[in-house]
Specification:
Blueprint: E1 11-12, H1 22-32, E2 46-56, E3 60-67, E4 74-82, E5 91-97, E6 102-105, H2 108-111, E7 118-140, E8 143-150, E9 152-153, E10 158-159, E11 163-171, E12 175-195, E13 201-209, E14 214-218, H3 219-222, E15 228-250, E16 256-260, H4 265-268, E17 273-280, E18 286-294, E19 297-305, E20 321-325, E21 333-334, H5 335-340, E22 342-347, E23 355-365, E24 369-379, E25 390-391, E26 395-401
């Protein structure tokens, strides 16, 4: 929980010239938007890595590879996550890997975990970043064929509010396609939509996964897809986080191909964090504030509010007070409510003033950027400050997530 001290005393300010405070707006936005969007190149190192699909069945076995790119030895823990269930206490093995060395675990499910037949996923944790890769393949006589599943750091899993697109799925006489996923520590709710190459929707399905739960199912059994060619599966993570993809299999040869999900800004960072925003009126004057999101919900909304657009008959600002706002918001508040608009009142009567009732709309895009509006209605302001009563013109909000050091 991020602790914040709220000081709710308003201050009275003089009406500024047009360019006054504009620099604050630029500073807030530049500061807020310098957080770089992470990228997810193949085989990204991490200290908590998911291999989302693995198995040992019939002639199919899995090899696991863990490489230490660092200059010091590292201890790694490999956990076996059983498919179709939560895995709060999985079977685990511990290894030490020297600097620059690669740990090779052939037929790892049998030779190391001792399971003759099993389906699931791997979670690899280490005290320094490691690179994880795997191969699942059919071994018959001296011939093998199969596919690879790379390790994805849990921080690069598609998180709440994010979307991943998986391209090239087919279900017909030539190919079948399996959809796989592995949830993170809080589970995941996946809203899936299968679309044709022309963008028309074929079928939808919502799937809920428990914590650290691997999942795999043929797409025509997962949703009412029927036969289709070259579809795209759009997966939006409603809550939690997950690594999602698909495996396309030739029905004649059984040769599989891994179809990995796309990576966007929303898939490379969690929605949680501190978002700094600026508030603009028609003359670009700005105040600003912070939005704190923890556990996928609003834990704090604090800012300053001054509205120079509320004018009297002579064109001067009717209300020249600057208010600190947000302590009247009931928290935690859901991000869905914030996107629809949250209404709350801040009472300044202790300072001889009145009440401001705000309606704040904020939408977080790509888990990095904030846009929205703020409306206010004043009431019970005394004579001398009665220009603060009534409806204020709407102001707009722009901002972004602060970088994490």
């Amino acid at each position: 929980m991020i602790e914040q001290i709220i000081i709710d005393r308003p201050i009275q300010v003089e009406t500024p010239r047009r360019n006054t405070m504009r620099y604050l707006a630029y500073f807030l936005l530049c500061t807020a938007l310098i957080a770089p969007a992470a990228t997810a190149p193949a085989l990204t190192p991490g200290t908590d890595v998911l291999v989302p699909a693995a198995g040992r069945v019939s002639t199919w076995i899995t090899d696991l590879y863990i490489m230490n790119p660092g200059a010091e030895p590292t201890t790694v823990t490999v956990a076996w996550l059983v498919r179709g269930q939560a895995n709060p206490n999985p079977a685990e093995l511990t290894f030490t890997i020297g600097p620059g060395e690669t740990l090779t675990l052939p037929d790892v499910i049998l030779e190391d975990f001792g399971f003759a037949a099993a389906d699931g996923a791997f979670r690899v944790t280490a005290d320094i970043e490691v690179v994880v890769n795997s191969r699942i393949y059919s071994a018959q006589d001296s011939e093998t064929f199969g596919q690879g599943f790379e390790g994805t750091p849990i921080g690069l899993a598609t998180a709440s509010g994010g979307r991943t697109d998986i391209v090239g799925l087919s279900s017909n006489s030539q190919f079948r396609t399996n959809v796989y996923a592995c949830a993170g520590p809080d589970g995941a709710t996946l809203d899936m939509a299968l679309v044709a190459p022309d963008g028309t929707e074929i079928a939808t399905k919502t799937k809920s996964l428990q914590a650290w739960m691997p999942f795999l199912k043929r797409i025509d059994q997962l949703m009412a897809s029927g036969d289709f060619d070259d579809g795209t599966l759009r997966v939006t993570v409603r809550d939690g986080s997950a690594v999602v993809g698909a495996s396309k299999v030739d029905s004649t040869s059984s040769d599989p191909t891994t179809l990995e999900g796309s990576v966007s800004a929303s898939g490379t960072t969690d929605v949680n964090g501190i978002y700094q925003f600026a508030i603009y009126d028609s003359l670009s004057y700005s105040t600003g504030g912070n939005l704190v999101v923890e556990g996928g919900a609003v834990e704090a909304l604090d800012g300053t509010y001054t509205n120079w657009d509320k004018l009297d008959g002579s064109g001067d600002s009717e209300c020249t007070w600057q208010f600190l706002f947000g302590w009247g918001l009931a928290i935690p508040a859901s991000l869905e409510d914030l996107e629809d608009g949250v209404t709350f009142s801040d009472d300044h009567s202790n300072f001889g003033l009145g009440v401001l009732t705000y309606t704040v709309v904020m939408e977080i895009r790509d888990n990095l950027y904030v846009t929205g509006t703020i409306d206010a209605v004043g009431s019970d302001f005394p004579a001398g400050d009665d220009g603060c009563n009534g409806t204020f013109p709407q102001l707009v909000i722009y901002g972004g997530k602060m970088p994490v050091e």
